[in-house]
Amino acid sequence: MAIFASRDLQVILEENAAALGTSYLHDRLPQLNSADSRHSLAAEWEIVLVDALNRCGHVEPFDKKHSKSVGIEGRRLRYPDVLFRPNANGPLAPVIRMLPKQLLLEISVVSDFGYEDANPQHLFYEAFNRLLRAHNMSHRLFGVDLKGELVKPKTRNKEWNVRSFLRPGLDHGKMRLLLPPKGRVDAFVKSHLGPWVKQIRCNPLLPANLTIDEIVDGHRVNLEVRYNPKGEYFSPGGFVGYTETYSANRNPVVNRLDDKLDQIRKSGFEGVAGVFLCDGQCDLLADRGGHNPMTFNLRQVITHFCNKPDHKRLSFVVTMSPQEITSWGRVEGPLTKVQAFFNPKARYPVEEKALDALVRAVCDQLPTPVNTAVNALNVIEGRGGFPEGRPPVGGYKLESASWIDV
Question: Does 339 map to a domain?
């Protein structure tokens, strides 16, 4: 339990055991206690959302008995698939007539998993700090800039990207740090930076710079290291944002939506279908970045996805990301940032007002998170903790409705 307090999750599990059945708990408890954040965070988000939905209506797993009603005999669907029926006596009473009798909902977690393996910057900094400690040198006297390059996607056509003034390119590639492969980082630091640090150790009063731009073990490596004996660097350096989204078609959010849309199609369900995307440490879903002219933000990505003619089966997308709120120089929260994206060209659209009411009603039932997604990963990996307790419900911040206008 990392994003939400364990006591909250325990109460939720106990209250929903009768409604969802013991098989639901048996499936979720191993995931919830998993040391793999991809499983544990997914289980957390599903548990709190199913509970919130259950307080606004009736929720049940979408299984083969529902498939029979639409002519698919005996198919067992992958979870999380839930069928939600709004309750006329609950928070949705004012808009119950505008909502469909039932909605098929997918709950899924999005993360930047895999980016660290492809861009082992943390391993580089750890190896460099070990080298400095071995020579009794302070890391505060050094600055490191790691370079990167856009890797173009492989296509069958020779022309990689067709663009014009009215239709800019939608796929600039994927950012990759110019570092040696993960298993060769430590050896690279010792062989390429070790002699340079030894020279500095012999002449510690002189500033020094080292630039490396060469092929190492079949990989291009490009970085710059600086030494200042006075330690007056305004910034110790950094690296390009390799989790920035340079492609509207290839990114963690689109990959997950593709998977969920395929699952909705295969379910055989005919009616309003939506996806709840929850933050498992994904910069795009948290809506960070997108300021570079070549990068895309969350709204651009989801709008582009829903504009595709073969994606009309998706009625709406709701994103949820626990984030710290900065107010008057103080860091407060975290609160769950929620954005709703409506697809008016969907095969089964839902009215904007009704969807807004549904999202607000569900969010009112969510427990307040105790960690952001990145801090939750630290909890799971043993690098931090959070105070136990039972925070109040309703810990969310609903952004101005980002309805898709196509």
Answer: yes
Regarding whether 252 and 108 lie in a shared domain, the answer is: yes
Residues whose CB is less than 8 angstroms from the CB of residue 205 and which lie 6 or more positions away in sequence, other chains included:
229
User: Per-residue pLDDT tens for 250-295?
Assistant: 899 999 999 999 999 988 889 999 999 999 989 999 887 656 778 8
Residue 22's φ and ψ, nearest 5 degrees, are -70, -25
Same domain, 393 and 272: yes
- For 89, list phi and psi in degrees, rounded to 5: -100, 5
Give yes or no: residues 251 and 387 share one domain.
yes
Structure token pair of residue 328 = 């008057």
Q: What is the Cα–Cα distance from 257 to 76, expressed in whole angstroms?
A: 20
Integer Cα distance of 97 and 185 in angstroms? 61
Rounded Cα–Cα distance for residues 92 and 102 (Å): 13
List 321's β-bridge partners, or say none.
337
Total number of domains constituting the chain = 2
Same domain, residue pair 215 and 272: no
142 strand-pairing partners: 227
Please say whether the beta carbons of 19 and 59 come within 8 A. yes
Domain boundary pick from 178, 209, 239: 239
CA distance 89 to 54: 13
Quick one: which H or E segment has residue 177? strand 174-177
Structural domain includes residue 406: no
Identify the domain containing residue 121 by its residue range.
Answer: 115-239
Is the pLDDT reported for residue 60 higher than 50? yes
Tokens of 53: 């939905």
Q: How far apart are CA 110 and CA 55, in angstroms?
A: 25
Give yes or no: residues 345 and 255 share one domain: yes
pLDDT one-digit tens code per residue, 215-244: 988 889 999 999 999 876 545 668 888 888
CA 367 to mean position of chain CA atoms: 19
The reply to whether 83 and 12 lie within a common domain is yes
Sequence-distant (6+) residues with CB within 8 A of 371 are 2, 3, 322, 334, 379, 386
Q: Among the residues of 76-217, which ranges form H helices?
A: 115-118, 121-134, 185-188, 194-202
